[in-house]
Design brief:
CATH topology: TIM Barrel
Order of helices and strands: HHEHHEHEHEHHEHEE
Number of helices: 9
Radius of gyration: 17 Å
Helix content: 40-55%
Length: about 200
Amino acid sequence: MPIAKRSALIKDIEGWIFREGCHQARVWNAKGYKFGKLALNASGPSLSHQYVAGHLSTAIHQSACPPELLEIEISESFETYNLELGLSEVTMIRGLGVSLSLDDYGTAYSSLKMLAQMPLNKLKIDRSLVNDIGKDAKADALVTATIGLAKLLGYTSIAEGVETKQQAKFCGKQVVTACKGFYTEGRCPQKSLRIFI
């Protein structure tokens, strides 16, 4: 993927991924499967070169996939590319009726201004922040502040990399919307998502 992102290959790869993803989401939906949303990744170069909305629009129309079944995950590092063009592309994606999530938040790329400008649905807190919960009061404060910021901006927050009971309890107490990780508390290991209300 790193090689593809540095070349024109990423355009064709993401186009194929979107077509296949839309087709599969429509099939699952038609069969009555309750899968929530199918998340598809978009790369920073594609956002800044404005490939994503066009590919996604074509895939949605060709497959007759309801756009509300889809979510585009954007890596926080997309800000290191052409931010202005990337934000324009993100706005067009939201205009298609597709949800947006910012992945890996807390890995030192995002500015608060950029975060406020994006029409996001979800903010995914990077595992590097979650990992230090309970080990360091400052880490606890950062996660708490990030969850609070997401709430104030109207975004759903998801804590990634939840591996321990202490982390799960902390995130639940902070009213994070969901946790993603391998902590299961007696559940089967395949059940990697825990929802807190």
